[in-house]
Amino acid sequence: MPRYVLDDAKNVEDPYPVYQRLREYGPVCRGGPGQWVFSRHAEVSALLRDPRLGREYPEQYQAMSIGQGPANDYLQRIIINRDGGAHVRLRRLLTKSLTPAMVRSLAEPIGALVDGLLDRLADREAWDLVTDLAVPVPMLVMSELLGIPEADRDTVARWSTSLAAAFAVFIPEEKRREAHEAVVRLREYFTGLVRERRRRPGEDLLSRMLMAVRDGTEPLTDEEIVDNALFVYYAGFETTTNVIATGGSVLLTQPDAQRRLRAEPDIVATALEEFMRYDAPIQATSRLVLEPVEIAGRTVRAGRVVVLLLGSANRDASVFEDPDRLDLTRSPNPHVSFGGGVHLCLGAALARVEGAVVFRRLLARFSDIGAAGPARWSPSGGGFRFPYWAYEEMPVTAVPS
Ligand code: HEM
User: Fold this and answer.
1) Which protein residue's CA is at the shortest distance from atom 21 of ligand 1?
2) Coil, strand or helix: which one is 97?
3) Which of 190, 165, 158 shows the shortest CA–CA distance to 180?
4) According to the model, what pLDDT value does residue 294 have?
5) Does pLDDT of 380 surpass 60?
6) How far is ligand 1, taken at its centre, from the CA of residue 347, in Å?
7) Are 307 and 361 in contact (CB under 8 A)?
8) Residue 338 alpha carbon to ligand 1 centre in Å
9) Residue nearest to atom 6 of ligand 1 (CA)
10) Which atom of ligand 1 is nearest to the CA of 231?
11) Angle at 24 (CA atoms; ends 18, 25), nearest 5 degrees
């Protein structure tokens, strides 16, 4: 039986042939100690939705990667790592605070914000699709959403990047320290924001969270509010950056796709789903088995961890015709890039609005976007392994229309 370990560099650096071998071998293979790894769409989808699996790992489990300290407490408090009643309470609060109406109302301001960024790029001979567009768009959107004042945005974004280490599979000692320090700083900062919003509530997500708590409908401590607000900020940032960068890479490497998307802007919604299927921004997630689960002819015992390869499920030929081909109008497209079940991504609608606005406006604004140098793809930046699909650089030249 093959073994797939996430912190093996070769599995991360060229994952698709590895995934294919795993799917061909069978539905399940071995992972690290106490882990089973699932690579096909059927089992990944089923396990994402199975109530016998959870996300609340024992404290020692987080300690193995991040050690003890603030980042460890943070990981245990955030919605993505809670089960049962605690999860329901946080999920209800965030769903009330980030309503479809709120997301719809953001489409225009996001358009203005993207136009502002593109205005500044129009005169430049070359620019970077990652650092000049894919990073600032979600950073600005999440800052607006949470009501972070302009003067503080860069600093908060920098701390959030340091905190990202807490989600890695392997974290070198010095990066652990950085993640713990980032949590301390972010908590201090968000605690100040909470105080300010209590005095002067606005229309932002934080004010809405506080309102729901004050109404007594969703009892939550200030520590829970702060840690979950900063998790939402983080969750909405890195992933959306990676979708924009992946779409950018498609435009650069597949000129036909670029021409088509420019000529037919109304296919942007299916194109975006396809970018997310093709290179899942989060390539893998995991669950803790709470009760024995029979799956694929095997019983997985309680206490084991299952690793779900989202990036592999999205390339499963039994669900997606010609899965290694990018098809801008693929429909249906049941990719699992937003997860599934009770932890299904809460920001999917917002991410879709952001992506659609970016690609529509970018392609309307520039008639020809080409590579000005090699893109730097970085799934495991900083020496620790993220199960992310990420780019650090993507130099481009673009001709204004
Ligand atoms: C394209 C961009 C995005 C992708 C690919 C993505 C992906 C995901 C995935 C895979 C999960 C579930 C992980 C699991 O079950 O183990 C998740 C959960 C979550 N996402 Fe997203 N996300 C994106 C954007 C956003 C945005 C913009 C926000 C916030 C506005 C957000 C907030 C959340 C939250 C709060 C959860 C936890 C939900 C829960 O535990 O109930 N995400 N996301």
Assistant:
1) 345
2) helix
3) 165
4) 96
5) no
6) 6
7) no
8) 6
9) 338
10) 35
11) 90
Cα 44 to ligand 1 centroid, rounded to whole Å? 17
Which residue of 142, 239, 275 sits with most ligand 1 atoms within 8 Å of its CB, as the best mutation to test the pocket? 239
User: Where residue 382 falls among pLDDT bands split at 50, 70, 90?
Assistant: very low
The finding on whether 139 has its CB within 6 A of some atom of ligand 1 is no
4 lines ligand 1 (CB under 6 A): no
Q: Is 240 in the pocket of ligand 1 (CB under 6 A)?
A: yes
Taking the CA atoms of residue 223, residue 226, residue 231 and residue 237 in that order, the dihedral angle to the nearest 10 degrees is -170
User: Largest Cα–Cα distance in the chain?
Assistant: 61
User: Does the pLDDT value for residue 283 go beyond 60?
Assistant: yes
**pLDDT at residue 30 greater than cutoff 50:** yes
Identify any residues that bridge with 299 across adjacent strands, giving them in sequence order: 294
pLDDT tens figures, 32-90: 889 999 999 999 999 999 999 999 998 888 888 888 899 999 999 999 999 999 999 99
Is pLDDT at 383 greater than 50 in this prediction?
no
Cβ(375)–Cβ(391) below 8 Å: yes
- Nearest-10 Cα torsion for 66, 68, 73, 74: -30
Residue 122 in contact with residue 365, Cβ under 8 Å? Answer: yes
Q: What percent of the chain has pLDDT over 90?
A: 82
Is the distance from the beta carbon of residue 345 to the nearest atom of ligand 1 less than 6 Å? yes
Alpha-carbon torsion 6, 314, 51, 300, what sign? negative
Cα distances (Å, whole numbers) of residue 305 to 33, 53, 342, 388: 9, 9, 18, 19
Query: Which tokens go with 149?
Result: 């004042």
Which pLDDT belongs to residue 214?
86
Q: What is the pTM for the complete model shown?
A: 0.96
Q: Which of 235-239, 270-274, 384-388 has the lowest mean pLDDT?
A: 384-388
| Cis ω for the linkage preceding 17 (within 30 of 0) | no
**Residue nearest to ligand 1 atom 13, measured at CA:** 339
Closest ligand 1 atom to Cα of 336: 10
Burial class (CB in 10 A: 0-12, 13-18, 19+), 219: exposed
The answer to whether 35 touches 305, Cβ cutoff 8 Å, is yes
Q: Is the pLDDT of residue 224 over 50?
A: yes
Nearest atom within ligand 1 for CA of residue 80: 40
- Domains delineated in the chain: 9-400 (1.10.630.10)
